[in-house]
Every structure is written in C-alpha cells, then in structure tokens.
Amino acid sequence: MYTDLFTFLVTAFKTNELNNFDLLIIYTMLICSLMPMISITNSNKILTQIAASSSFGSKIAILIISYAVFIGDWSIGSIGTTILIVGDAGLITLTLLYGTNRN
Question: From CA 4, how far away is CA 79, in angstroms rounded?
Fold first, then answer.
C-alpha cells in the first residue's frame, strides 16, 4: 500500500481528524497528568508541592504538543513548547528563591 515509511507518515499526519488511538493516547496522558495533583494535596512540604506542580506543568505541555502533532497544527505545538520552557524556568526560580530565603 505505502512504498516507504516517509510516505506513510506524511499521509498519516496530513489529516486533521483524530482517530480512536490518538484519543486513547490523549486521554491516558490527561489521566496521568492528574497524579501530581493528588501529590500536591497530600503533601505538607512546600518544596514537594513545587516539584509536583512542575511535573503537572510538564505533563500538560507534553499533552498540548502531542495533540498538535496529532492534528498537524504547529502553532499549537509552539505554544506547548513555550509553556514547557517558561513554566519550568519559573518554578526552578521559585524553588531557588524559597531555598535562599529559608536560611
């Protein structure tokens, strides 16, 4: 049917429709991104809550990027990449500021 892998990948990502496998991956990633929220509510230490928040932000950004790949819209993927970069940098800065003010 397809002569090579590149032709298959180009035609597979050309469509803007999500099939059942894509939706399964997106919903699984969404359920997995809720696990850090449980960790945030169960923890009393601020540094553990910040680390769990960073994990949640990273998982949501990866979810946005994978959705952009599935529908073939790279403008949404660039937004997910920006969220990934800026969100992690902000939380790392917050953690460093909390650690220096704690002493």
Answer: 32
Q: From CA 64, how far away is CA 23, in angstroms rounded?
A: 13
Q: 3-state class of 33 per DSSP?
A: helix
With CA atoms as reference, report the closest residue to 67 among 14, 31, 97, 27.
27
| Cβ-based neighbour number of residue 90 at 10 Å | 12
Q: How many CB atoms lie within 10 A of CB 80?
A: 19
pLDDT (tens, 9 = 90+) of the chain, 103 residues, equals: 556 666 665 565 555 556 778 888 888 888 888 888 888 888 888 878 887 888 888 888 888 888 888 888 888 888 888 888 887 777 777 777 777 666 5
**What is the number of alpha carbons within 13 Å of residue 78 lying toward its C-beta?**
3
Residues 16, 35, 80: CA angle, nearest 5 degrees? 35
Domain segments of the chain: what residues? 18-102
Percentages helix, strand, coil for the chain (3-state, rounded to 5) are: 85, 0, 15
